Queue: 3 jobs
Job 1
Amino acid sequence: MSQNSSRREAMRAQQQAQEAAARRRKIVGIVAGILVVAIIAAVVIWAVNRDKGSEEATGPQAKPPSANVKTGAYTVYPKKAKKNAPVVTVFEDPQCPGCKNLETSNLGHAIQTLASSGDIELRWQILTFLDDNLRNDSSSRAARAIAAADMVGKLAPYHNTVYANQPEEGTGYTDEQLRDDFAAQAGIKGEDLATFQKYYDNNTTKDFAEKAADTGLQTGTNLTKKFSSPFVTVNGQPWEDWQMMGDANQAQLLDAIKKAAK
């Protein structure tokens, strides 16, 4: 074999080795790319399932003791109302600024005082329609937390804490607020706190809160085509005069409610 032939053979062998190495690198790159895509897909699926799991019930469902099964409305002070006391129902969404204004005003406090004394029967119909408007799930989570608070006998204190600490519109409540901060402010502690947090974590009141919100919204829209929150009824009929009662004392407020009840 000539020297030139040997040189050509050596060059051909080197070229073949380089091509083989290139093919190996290409294969390794493809495999690595597939693995990266698979890992990313797995992470995305995990994240979706994690978020989905936070919204789905993970334990047995329960109905809050102060709530009516059919309407989903809470009776704020069960068995307190005197015979023939007018029934005042407040339809409200936890993210509704007007609802906060009502609940934290002198009028809101007066209504609750009349309920605690038995002069009226006060009911709360918790809605969640603002979740769609604001593109979050804050009202739904707050509604479930309010229901969980009722499960441990702290409906009114927790409800009032939620409205007193309502965030700026669109911001929404955090899980830490609903699960920890508001519970502490409402006086939920010890075993009751552990129970409340278990209900919140497991979404034990999810089915109830959703059905109550849907029923309440349907009831309100059946009563008026221009339904919005806050919305107040007396004995099941719309009562708009509450908006003019901001300066009324309790006696005047009770007289107005009794007049509307006739």
Job 2
Amino acid sequence: MRHFILSLALVCSAFVSAAEITNIAAAPEQVSPLLPGIDAPALQLKDKSGKTVDLATRYKENITVLVIYRGGWCPYCSRQLAGIQEIEPQLVKMGAQIIAIAPDSPEALAKSTIESPHYQLLSDNEMRMSQALGLAYFLDDKTALAYRNKLGVNFVDFEGNDKVALPVPAVFVVDKKGLIQFQYANPNYKVRLDESVLLAAVKAASQL
């Protein structure tokens, strides 16, 4: 299998990461998210302080609401994270924890105002988790140019072209055995899962 290297320079951060490309779609509509009944990827990722977090261990602790978002620079993602934070007490009461993962560096995550023992942000700056979940895709050239000009993203050369990858935003509910019980992913990043649906999904998972 051929292996390629993509450097990702993220918004609001000078941190540059190299991502090994194994499963990145050509467009958001072409991603293939993992479905319920499949084991969730049990990778090791960094938190905002740079500490390694083992997802396999975290899954065993509680039902996990796994949120995949595009980055702290995305206003739609910020609103989603804030909305989930509002229902955090209800989720915790049902025995759930929240783990939100983005391609941001740990340094960028440290700028977040979310601070809770039940709500953790993790860095997927090598896009390993996004690829394992089947959510990663390349931005088209037009979007890449707009992001560069309007958001200040620094792109690097990839096989003669400027490229960057992002995850399709998604929410998974993972049980204590590490099995996905619920999945929502939408290629339209402006449309996010309603909190009431998430509460219902966690309630159903807690009764299994």
Job 3
Amino acid sequence: MVASVAAIVVVSALVVGGAWQLLQPGEPAQPDNQPATTAQVAQRPDCPGPTVAGVALPCLGGESGQESESGLTVVNVWAWWCEPCRAELPLFDALAKAHPDVRVVGVHADGNAANGAALLGDLGVDVPSYQDSENAFAGALGLPAVVPLTLVLRDGRQVGLFPKEFGSLEELEEAVGL
């Protein structure tokens, strides 16, 4: 009986304590699996335009520019939790630096924008990325639901698709035709 009363007191204290925290002013706690608000996302490079492959997506940690989708664009679809993505993201940064005439962008295919921006910062990757919390990009284009995935566009139209991890800059350049 004493143990039952003690358990009720402990549970009541936890419930009241949790309710008290909910009533306190300030930033609400956010579960790890919830999308981050814009204020929580680290500042990132601006995206070149408001769309990629004709799909409107917000820019991850930056603003969206007004460029058209002319020329060659290489899109890396990735997620912050994907180990192969972590390994190949620096290759896309190297591709962008080696070929400034090619638009290189990422599409972060996960709802946790803060973790995506943090990963890019940790890796030192400066390629702008779009945020795709709802899988709108893959859905609109009928892409396979895998990451990493590389899409090559010419003037906004798909000309190549690679659902695989690239192991070197040379392999990536060859695949996209550079």
